[in-house]
Amino acid sequence: MRYKFKSVELRTENAAKPYRQRGKWVVDQIQQIPVDAVALDYGCGKFRYTIPLSRRARRVFAVDSSFQIEREQRIANKRTNLREYARKYLRNVSVLESEADGWRRPRFDFILCANVLSVIPHKSVRIQVLEKLAAVLNENGQLLVTTQFRNTYFSQCSAKPNATWVRDGWFIRGVRGASFYAIIPPKKLAQLCRTAGLAVSRVGSKGETAFVFAVRA
Questions:
Q1: Residue 8: its pLDDT value, please?
Q2: Cβ contacts of residue 180 below 8 Å, gap of 6+?
Q3: Which of 44, 104, 169, 172 could form a disulfide with 62 if both were Cys (CB 3.0 to 4.6 A apart)?
Q4: HEC readout, the chain
């Protein structure tokens, strides 16, 4: 997704991490969902967690911006785009643009929203994303939301001339354009979920990752 902020366009697709940087803890949580589940990976990026989801769930919807879906990039050591990779290697995965209606009709047993909210500069938009996810969550479904709220890179930003603290995160101007990364710790992440009308069932952190498990209120 792309957002206007400080009179520039933030290209959030540049923040997507490759498959090899998937977090073991998140993968472990994926391994616990029912094998007949219909799952949604919202903000699927470079399929970092879509691939593990496809090996566990019966069907997976991978959703991201049209910019992220159509651009050619390296996905799990293949130079291709998301839609083509899924067609060849992930037969139970449907790739859809976030702007499309196709992923809003099903009801999901498991939804993953990994490191998506942090790159959204506007709090109101973060809440809108969570509201959309709440609307497509199955009655007995589970939503897992994660953010990376601390690492060495963040602590070094204060010394970088191209980095400025704005609102609740770092606004950085780089060679590939501008980016924003909000620092959203566990309690703040839980409050965002509650504001969006979700019931928080578990909140905490694992290493550098803040997480919330939520269900329909």
A1: 77
A2: 3, 5, 10, 119, 120, 121, 166, 169, 170, 171, 172
A3: 44
A4: CEEEECCEEEEHHHHCCCHHHCCHHHHHHHCCCCCCCEEEEECCCCCCCHHHHHCCCCEEEEEECHHHHHCCEEECCEEECHHHHHHHHCCCEEEEECCCCCCCCCCEEEEEEECCHHHCCCHHHHHHHHHHHHHCEEEEEEEEEEEECCCHHHHHHHHCCCEEEECCEEEEEECCEEEEEECCCHHHHHHHHHHCCEEEEEEEEECCEEEEEEEEC
Supply the pTM of this predicted model: 0.93
Q: How far is CA 132 from CA 79, 99, 105, 113, 179, in A?
A: 32, 12, 11, 12, 24
CATH value at residue 74: 3.40.50.150
- pLDDT above 70 covers what percent of the chain? 98
Domain with 208, as residue range(s), is: 2-216
Q: Is the pLDDT of residue 25 over 80?
A: yes
Q: What is residue 178's predicted lDDT score, i.e. its pLDDT? A: 82
Structural domain total, the chain: 1
Q: Which residues pair with 175 in a beta bridge?
A: none
Token pair, residue 10, equals 């933030």
